[in-house]
UniProtKB/TrEMBL annotation:
<dbReference type="Pfam" id="PF12680">
    <property type="entry name" value="SnoaL_2"/>
</dbReference>
<dbReference type="InterPro" id="IPR007627">
    <property type="entry name" value="RNA_pol_sigma70_r2"/>
</dbReference>
<dbReference type="Pfam" id="PF08281">
    <property type="entry name" value="Sigma70_r4_2"/>
</dbReference>
<dbReference type="InterPro" id="IPR013324">
    <property type="entry name" value="RNA_pol_sigma_r3/r4-like"/>
</dbReference>
<dbReference type="InterPro" id="IPR013325">
    <property type="entry name" value="RNA_pol_sigma_r2"/>
</dbReference>
<dbReference type="Pfam" id="PF04542">
    <property type="entry name" value="Sigma70_r2"/>
</dbReference>
<keyword id="KW-0804">Transcription</keyword>
<dbReference type="InterPro" id="IPR014284">
    <property type="entry name" value="RNA_pol_sigma-70_dom"/>
</dbReference>
<feature type="domain" description="SnoaL-like">
    <location>
        <begin position="221"/>
        <end position="315"/>
    </location>
</feature>
<dbReference type="InterPro" id="IPR014305">
    <property type="entry name" value="RNA_pol_sigma-G_actinobac"/>
</dbReference>
<dbReference type="InterPro" id="IPR000838">
    <property type="entry name" value="RNA_pol_sigma70_ECF_CS"/>
</dbReference>
<keyword id="KW-0238">DNA-binding</keyword>
<feature type="domain" description="RNA polymerase sigma-70 region 2">
    <location>
        <begin position="25"/>
        <end position="91"/>
    </location>
</feature>
<comment type="subunit">
    <text>Interacts transiently with the RNA polymerase catalytic core formed by RpoA, RpoB, RpoC and RpoZ (2 alpha, 1 beta, 1 beta' and 1 omega subunit) to form the RNA polymerase holoenzyme that can initiate transcription.</text>
</comment>
<dbReference type="InterPro" id="IPR037401">
    <property type="entry name" value="SnoaL-like"/>
</dbReference>
<protein>
    <recommendedName>
        <fullName>RNA polymerase sigma factor</fullName>
    </recommendedName>
</protein>
<feature type="domain" description="RNA polymerase sigma factor 70 region 4 type 2">
    <location>
        <begin position="146"/>
        <end position="195"/>
    </location>
</feature>
Length: 334
């Protein structure tokens, strides 16, 4: 342990809050992203992170320095997330509540209805962190909505092992220490988690997205905004992949395929609803605050769209409730 770090720990153990903050602040954002990956909810991740830091503050005497402080904090964070996944009643699904709009029959009902987006403005310092040599995923892929959603379909222990091993690249013995288990148990859980994730992601396989901020992405985003704001269903559908996927957590309705997504958009626009879109980014993907135009001239925030791109088209649209807008610095009305 470096002298400066040892001195800070000594001061923090003596009750110096500033010293504790100096110790933990460099890891705060990446711990929040870690909690988000495990829980799938931005709000839950924030809440658990506060508990993690409080637990670390109270338990600092138990830090013996055999592992790094970062590893020790990840141990606390992972176990607090496991506690949350096992014990908390996840938010229930909602029923359709848009008056005057009758949605088409969904393709299926989704299992992950508590999902929330993660603002890109908070990713700085959260994903650009040192990864172990065994990490298997690109940083942007491991924060995408598709990846985070797929994680939520795994059992809690498998989520923890896969994120720690394949996303962050911790060694198997480090993960075993974090979870108070054996290396063999970690390897077994990782094998099952990889198989489960592979099945889910094969079903949603697609071409790589264009680079963020590239001309291809900007052109596609501009066409989407134009089509959506003008309620041009034909122009919107022309941007979609054949197997485009649409979901609306916490509504369980899920739609797959251009035809059914087109019918959904037609039902929305056919009811006279018109929107303005305010661009932002979530989970490394283009996103938009959606504001419903009213006769008064005030536009009310109805939700947030996040789109996934595949090659030069849109492969997924996820719509979240307006409660997520403040996390993106977006107002409830314009």
């Amino acid at each position: 342990m470096e002298l400066a770090g040892a001195e800070l720990i000594g001061r923090a153990r003596a009750g110096d809050g500033e010293a504790f903050g100096e110790l933990t602040e460099p890891h705060r954002r990446e711990l929040q992203v870690h909690c988000y990956r495990m829980l799938g909810s931005f709000q839950d991740a924030e809440d658990v992170l506060q508990d993690v830091l409080l637990s670390a503050w109270r338990g600092l005497d138990g830090f013996d320095g055999r592992a790094s402080l970062r590893t020790w904090l990840y141990r606390i964070a992972t176990n607090r997330c496991l506690d949350a996944l096992r014990s908390a009643a996840r938010r229930p699904a909602k029923e359709w509540d848009i008056p005057g709009v009758e949605p088409p029959e969904p393709t299926r009902l989704g299992e992950v209805v508590w999902l929330e987006p993660y603002p890109d403005v908070l990713l700085d310092g959260g994903i650009d962190v040192p990864l172990g040599p065994e990490a298997r995923y690109e940083r942007n892929e491991s924060i995408s909505l598709a990846f985070v959603t797929a994680l939520q379909l795994l059992p809690p222990r498998q989520i923890a092992v896969l994120v720690l091993r394949d996303v962050l690249g911790f060694h198997a013995d480090e993960v075993a220490g974090m979870l108070d288990t054996t290396v063999e148990s970690v390897k077994s859980a990782l094998k099952r988690a990889r198989a489960g994730l592979r099945r889910r992601r094969q079903a949603t396989a697609s071409e790589p997205p264009p680079a963020a901020g590239s001309r291809v992405e900007e052109a596609l985003v501009a066409k989407f905004v134009s089509a959506y704001e003008s309620a041009d269903v034909d122009a919107l559908v022309a941007l979609l992949t054949d197997d485009v996927f649409m979901s609306m957590p916490p509504l369980p309705l899920e739609y797959e395929g251009r035809d059914v997504v087109a019918r959904f958009c037609s039902s929305l626009f056919g009811a006279g609803r018109r929107f303005d879109l305010v661009p932002t980014r979530a989970n490394g993907q283009p996103a938009f605050g959606a504001y419903l135009r009213a006769p008064t001239g005030v536009r009310h925030g109805t939700g947030l769209f996040v789109i996934a791109l595949s090659g030069g088209r849109i492969s997924a649209l996820t719509r979240f409730e307006n409660s997520v807008l403040p996390a993106f610095g977006l107002p409830r009305s314009l």
